[in-house]
Amino acid sequence: MKVNIKVVAEKAEVSTATVSRVLRNYPGVRKKTRKKVLKAISDLNYEVNAVARSLRQRKTYTIGVVVGNVLSQFYSIIAKSVEDVAHKYDYNTILCNGDDNPEKELRYLKVLKASRVDGIILTPTGKNADYINWLINSDTKVVLLDRLIDGVKCDAVLVDNENGAYKAVKHLIDQGYRRIGIINGYVDRTTGRGRFNGYLRALKESDISVDESLIKFGNFKKRSGIDLARELLDRPDRPEALFVANIDMTLGAIMTIKEMGLKIPQDIGIVGFDDSEWALILDPPLTVVSQPVYSLASTAAEMLIKKINGENTSHGDKPLIVTLSTDLVVRGSTRRL
Amino acid sequence: MKVNIKVVAEKAEVSTATVSRVLRNYPGVRKKTRKKVLKAISDLNYEVNAVARSLRQRKTYTIGVVVGNVLSQFYSIIAKSVEDVAHKYDYNTILCNGDDNPEKELRYLKVLKASRVDGIILTPTGKNADYINWLINSDTKVVLLDRLIDGVKCDAVLVDNENGAYKAVKHLIDQGYRRIGIINGYVDRTTGRGRFNGYLRALKESDISVDESLIKFGNFKKRSGIDLARELLDRPDRPEALFVANIDMTLGAIMTIKEMGLKIPQDIGIVGFDDSEWALILDPPLTVVSQPVYSLASTAAEMLIKKINGENTSHGDKPLIVTLSTDLVVRGSTRRL
DNA sequence: ATGAAAGCGCTAACAT
DNA sequence: ATGTTAGCGCTTTCAT
Lengths: 337, 337
Known about the structure:
The structure is a homodimer.
Chain A: H1 5-12, H2 16-23, H3 31-44, H4 50-57, E1 62-67, H5 73-88, E2 92-97, H6 102-114, E3 119-122, H7 129-137, E4 141-145, E5 156-159, H8 161-174, E6 180-184, H9 190-205, E7 215-217, H10 222-233, E8 241-244, H11 247-259, E9 269-273, E10 287-290, H12 293-308, E11 321-324, E12 327-329
Parallel strand pairs in A: 1-2, 1-3, 3-4, 4-5, 5-11, 6-7, 6-8, 8-9, 9-10
Antiparallel strand pairs in A: 10-12
Chain A binds a DNA duplex through helix 2 and helix 4.
């Protein structure tokens, strides 16, 4: 037995318009009438049909979030953070797993568009510039998270990758390390590029020549960390220390180090990018660059909701780009040489 | 400029009904007509309005998932798993963070109901029996995940908590441990209850008397692990080993152990419930009970979609309850006494 | 094979 | 303060 606004109206002996007013706490309803309506609603266990409401209002009170992969800590913090903000403003969230896969990303963006979400937060693969430009040019509000896309002008919230990486490598150099390897992720992402630049800048500043054989590029996943650490360490002139450009690859690199029977920091120093609660209970605890993942995402969500509410965030046609700073957290995974 | 099915119909010089047929790959449309329509769609960059479609079809192709907290590994695996299955069947997922909070859970269940999702997967707090019963009695399809609710008859997918805990504690006993402490979670949840029973059964079987002072109840969060480990270990007659009933509390317990300068397994043995990739690179690697979290959730999602499609999963009015087994993974965090 | 028209459940403009 | 009515964008009978 379906109970809709009409049934409620009949039961309360008012018009559907009045019921609708009560539902939305519209002011001009007599107290007595409101009470009657509320009673009918409660008696019938009526719950508003948000689908019909969205259709009529052309507003869904929903924001879409497309992230890489919730299994990764980084993205699950983002999911939680966006959800918290959305909740605060009475918005719902549709979370989509782009899986770092451009096709899945595109698919989900289309789904979100079809669902007429009020806005989208996207950690982009960087590959769907055309569609995303079209999205932005139609009515959809978009905020990019963590990285930019070549050829797309869009508000974004980023992290200072270059300085973070710089601090990490500078720390290694200050400790006396000279042969410093890097396990980086995609360089065609602004994150990978930034972290790589930070690495190069720190070396250059200390007049350490760049050794191509110490530079490896992976895909930001654990597997990359495992394999590339092996490539770097399984040779006589192995690096004295490793800078690993994200948490999943750091996990992988440590697995390899353990498996090879190497000791941290005696045999090899390591600094990771991105912190984890587990980093604290490793032996030794891990030195990392910590990035403000939660505020990264909450800032983006706040920006998006402002945009949805028509508050102009950007000046002129320049997109608004916010960059949050990153910090080196020194623990025990390097030593003084 | 809004482009809807009517605009497409005009451009293609057909009726809206025909456009609709093309959109849904309805068979009886002439090839030439279909082509004309597809051209119009593509020229206009038309994308179907899923809101209107859902209203008309009374079907949203969306399932709602209410989990405890995506920040926890356990729940993020669930989120990913459900999403994978949903995606396979062309369903969307709305993920909600119940935060292990009965009020938030209720709120989200109402939102999902209002959104007319086709079904709901819920890891229940156990507190909203009335509403959930009402949900089930109205048209909503529900599958419970990981735990049951007192007073609610509903299909569910569970894990064999009791045997998992039993195996963990039995292992400790076999290693020679006698004074075995337990840090458990909520006992008013079937998970906490089951794990506690497994602990008791193992002790009983070996004629080890139960020492109340070795039994602590927390809330399954890291903080509990930190605090309760401190209570258990900060006394002269501290236990020889600890069984910790979930991953977050295990992390917390290890933090306390580190902070107190105790060595695993020399000073204290530990077995955790639930595995993690990080458990492998701890020193020593952690012995754990591993539960099949991914298949737990994918099984539930498959069940839900079957229910949505009208396939009868349960026999008569008995709910279908699937229980998956758990395994002990022996690594290095206990020793032979 | 295609079109006309009703209606999903609600809201908002207008009328009273 | 409340009611009447059109219409959001689509799908689905029922005609043709």
